[in-house]
Amino acid sequence: MVVVAENIQAWQNHAVYGEYLIHKLAHSVYAPVMDGEAQIALGTRYFEHQAEMDRAKWYNGVGIYYRMQRNDIGRALESHHVALALADGVQRPSLVGRKALTSTSLILSKTGNHIEAQKYARQAQGYAEILGNIAGQAYALCIEAKCWMALSDFRYAADLCNRSRTLLESSGLQGGTLDIFVQQQEAEIHLLKTEYKEARHIHETTINSIPPGQPPTINTVLSHLNLALIYIATEASPELVNKHLDISRQHFNTTFAYPTGRLYCDMAHADLYLRTGQPVAARLLLEECYAAARGKLEEGATFCLERLADLSHGLNDQYTTAHWANVYLGSALKSKDSLAMMKAIKCFGEIFLSNGDNQTALNLFTVALGGFTFMDVHRWKGTCMIRIADILAARGEFLKSREFWTSGRVLLARCSQVTDTALVDAKLETLKLCQRMD
Question: What InterPro entries does this protein's entry cite (predicted)?
Fold first, then answer.
């Protein structure tokens, strides 16, 4: 790359020079640009004298650099807006404009503005369809699916992913990088619904798709990270978790210039601290990650808030936990994330239950149960059922409590929650013994 950089300076009057400058920034996640601001200044001066569409390409590249390598969301968004205005001024629609639209949609969704992000994703689909750009259309469909995931409409998100994959298959693009990306979004839907086995299968397939000896792609590294999170959630051994977490951290530190990936690794590490009984280390790392993600990575901020707001983790006293639960609920309401709303309500249920206000807790768990049932989120639906059963049992309503314990147990077992399932078994056995004694 150094030799190319030295030799290409003599080609400044050739179109390849501009393409080189764009490629360098747009692919900086694979080859970090150490002097980014200087390169941007150089490229901007060069493209001042080039055609408008070439300038639009340049600003798309700048936007990708700011988003991926620098995690500077504001500048990234501004760059893509400039690219779209330039491209649309020359030709509407255009491939350059379509790329600006999908990039803008991604950024808006990452910052929690999912409704606006949907508009850009749909506009990108329209551009791609008119241009006959099948891959672009499939990608834009997948980006819209990510918006619906964030809004907790998992059925429609899955439908969009299916439509995206159908387009790719119809044009012979199945099995490629884009197809793998779409499959990973399908895995994310499964993960959000706590369908851990299905999500794990997709990520394992992604990792195994890389031939031996071939370097990993950013998709496979993200699959390692997701496997670590899945193994944490399903109580696998810390050694297995660390195996995948170490692989992802190593590549985000060396192979890819992707700060967001490193932040995700830190969040997963905090989750592992929770699993292994290290609440102080978990709390400090979660608070640090939340500060880094807030306003830039809504998904990451939500991840941290979900854990900080959960009294059962023992990270803080009730007052501080209630503060985090308020922040969690406010964030969910702002971004219209229904899943996070129900999780926050569940967190409040835990707080009221610990204070002995069983009726308020019952009301909150009932509301959350309805939401989780509608979204078909198995683990948290099961957890709410268990909490409701506990409250009913304390009231002496043993017939109803047995029904809730039994139904909740099925859901927890489906999600590989071995410890919680065993606790429910013990409660059911105790109830059975008490009934025999009566």
Answer: TPR-like_helical_dom_sf
Q: Which helix (H) or strand (E) holds 334?
A: helix 318-335
* pLDDT tens-place string over residues 264-287: 999 999 999 999 999 999 999 999
For residue 342, being part of any structural domain is answered with no
Residue 200: inside a domain: no
Gyration radius from the chain CA atoms:
24
Q: Which of 66, 119, 55 is nearest to 88 (CA)?
A: 55
Examine residue 302 and state whether it is found in any structural domain, yes or no: yes
Segments forming the whole domain that contains residue 299? 216-308
Cβ neighbours of residue 252 closer than 8 Å, sequence gap 6 or more: 221, 258, 261, 262, 265
What local confidence, expressed as pLDDT, does residue 214 receive? 85
Residues ≥6 apart with Cβ < 8 Å to 10? none
Summarised one tens digit per residue, pLDDT across range 13-33 is 557 888 989 999 999 998 889
Residue 418 lies in a domain: no
279: Cβ–Cβ under 8 A, 6 or more apart, which residues? 273, 313, 314, 315
Please state whether the predicted TM-score (pTM) of the whole model is above 0.90: yes
Domain count, the chain: 1
Fill in the DSSP letter of residue 157: H
Query: In this structure, what token pair is assigned to residue 288?
Result: 């640090």
Work out the number of other CB atoms within 10 angstroms of the CB of residue 410. 13
- Gap between the Cα atoms of 372 and 365, Å rounded: 10
Please give the structure tokens belonging to residue 105.
């949609």
